[in-house]
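Practice problem 4.
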C-alpha cells in the first residue's frame, strides 16, 4: 500500500491527499467538507419520503439491479453491553453521522458478477470508444480453481467466493461500464443500513424466534445459500442484510475500531489483504452471527484449499459464504476523485 493515502469523504465523494505511514480512520478531510456533510445529515424519516431509489441497467447486457435510497442521519454504532452474544469488538458504542447514499436492494448476484469476470467484451463494443478503452484496461480475474458457487446455484443467487480485492475491482469495472460510481459500503454504512433506524439486536427486534421470516442461516438453510430476496426485508426495504451471504465492506478489520473512530463518515483505510471486515452473517452461521452489530474478519483460512503458489488475489476458495452489496453516494464524486479512490483501495 502506498504511503500516500487519499482520505475519502464518503458522503460527498471528495478526496484530499494526506500523508501517513499506517492505517488510519478517515473522515471528512477539511472544515469545508465537514460543513457540507453536516448539511446533508437529515432525519431518516424526512428524507425517506423525498428521494426514491432507482434501477440501474448495465448497457448492452440486459442485466439490471435495484438501488434503495438510504437517508443520511446518525446512529449508535456497535452493541450495548447488555446485548446477548455481544463480542468485545462491537464496542464501545459510538455515535456516528453519515451522509445519504444508495445501497443495493439485494446482494450482488451471479448474473451481474459474471459479466465482469467472464470478460464478455463483445457485449460492450458498441459503447463509446473512450469507455471501451477504459473497460478493456481493467484487469479481470483469472478462472477460479473450482466452481465458486459450489453448486449452490447461480440464477438469482448471490455471487460468493470472491476476494475483497476482486469485489473492489468489480466495483471499478461496474462504475466504468455504467458511468455511475459504485463501491463497497464502509462498516458504518453497512450497520446503519442494516439497522434501518432500529436499536435492537436485529432489524426485526430482539426476539430471535422471528429469524426464519427474515434470514437464511444455519438453522434453515439446508447447508446452502438461497435466491436473493427470499425472506422479508428490513424496514428500509433491504433484503438479506441478516444472513444468506455475508458481505464485504471497505474497512480493514480492527478489533478496537470504535475506540478510535471518527464521528462522521468513518473509514478504516485498508493496508493489508487480511484482515478485512465483512458483515451480516451467512447461510453457514448461527443466528447470533447475524445480529446488526456482529463483525467478522477475513483470514488466510479462507484460501487454505487454494493449491496455487502464490494463492489467488481474486478468489477465496474457502469463502463460499461471503459475497457483496453495492453502495453509490447520493452526491457523485468527480472523475478525478474517483481515480484517487481507486488508487487508494486498489493500490494502483
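Answer key:
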Amino acid at each position: 500500500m502506498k504511503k500516500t493515502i487519499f482520505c475519502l469523504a464518503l458522503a460527498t465523494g471528495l478526496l484530499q491527499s494526506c500523508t501517513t505511514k499506517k492505517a488510519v480512520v478517515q473522515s471528512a478531510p477539511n472544515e469545508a467538507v465537514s460543513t457540507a456533510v453536516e448539511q446533508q445529515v437529515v432525519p431518516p424519516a424526512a428524507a425517506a419520503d423525498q428521494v426514491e431509489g432507482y434501477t440501474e441497467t448495465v448497457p448492452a447486457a440486459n442485466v439490471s439491479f435495484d438501488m434503495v435510497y438510504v437517508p443520511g442521519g446518525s446512529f449508535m454504532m456497535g452493541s450495548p453491553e447488555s446485548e446477548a452474544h455481544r463480542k468485545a469488538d462491537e464496542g464501545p458504542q459510538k455515535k456516528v453521522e453519515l451522509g445519504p447514499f444508495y445501497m443495493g436492494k439485494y446482494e450482488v448476484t451471479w448474473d451481474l458478477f459474471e459479466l465482469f469476470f467472464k470478460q464478455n467484451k463483445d457485449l460492450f463494443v458498441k459503447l463509446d470508444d473512450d469507455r471501451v478503452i477504459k473497460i478493456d484496461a481493467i484487469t479481470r480475474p483469472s478462472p477460479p480453481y473450482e466452481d465458486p458457487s459450489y453448486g449452490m446455484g447461480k440464477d438469482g443467487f448471490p455471487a460468493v467466493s470472491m476476494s475483497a480485492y476482486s469485489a473492489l475491482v468489480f466495483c471499478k469495472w461496474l462504475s466504468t461500464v455504467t458511468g455511475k460510481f459504485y463501491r463497497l459500503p464502509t462498516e458504518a454504512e453497512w450497520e446503519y443500513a442494516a439497522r434501518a433506524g432500529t436499536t435492537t439486536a436485529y432489524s426485526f427486534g430482539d426476539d430471535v424466534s422471528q429469524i426464519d421470516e427474515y434470514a437464511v442461516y444455519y438453522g434453515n438453510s439446508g447447508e446452502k445459500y438461497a435466491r436473493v430476496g427470499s425472506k422479508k426485508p428490513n424496514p428500509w426495504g433491504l433484503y438479506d442484510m441478516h444472513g444468506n451471504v455475508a458481505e464485504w465492506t471497505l474497512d480493514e478489520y480492527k478489533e478496537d475500531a470504535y475506540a478510535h473512530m471518527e464521528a462522521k463518515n468513518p473509514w478504516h483505510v485498508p493496508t493489508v489483504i487480511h484482515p478485512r471486515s465483512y458483515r451480516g452473517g451467512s447461510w453457514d452461521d448461527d443466528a447470533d452471527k447475524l445480529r446488526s452489530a456482529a463483525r467478522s474478519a477475513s483470514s488466510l483460512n479462507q484460501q487454505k484449499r487454494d493449491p496455487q503458489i502464490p494463492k489467488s488475489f481474486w478468489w477465496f476458495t474457502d469463502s463460499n459464504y461471503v459475497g457483496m452489496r453495492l453502495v453509490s453516494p447520493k452526491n457523485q464524486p468527480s472523475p478525478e476523485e474517483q481515480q484517487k479512490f481507486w488508487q487508494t483501495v486498489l493500490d494502483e
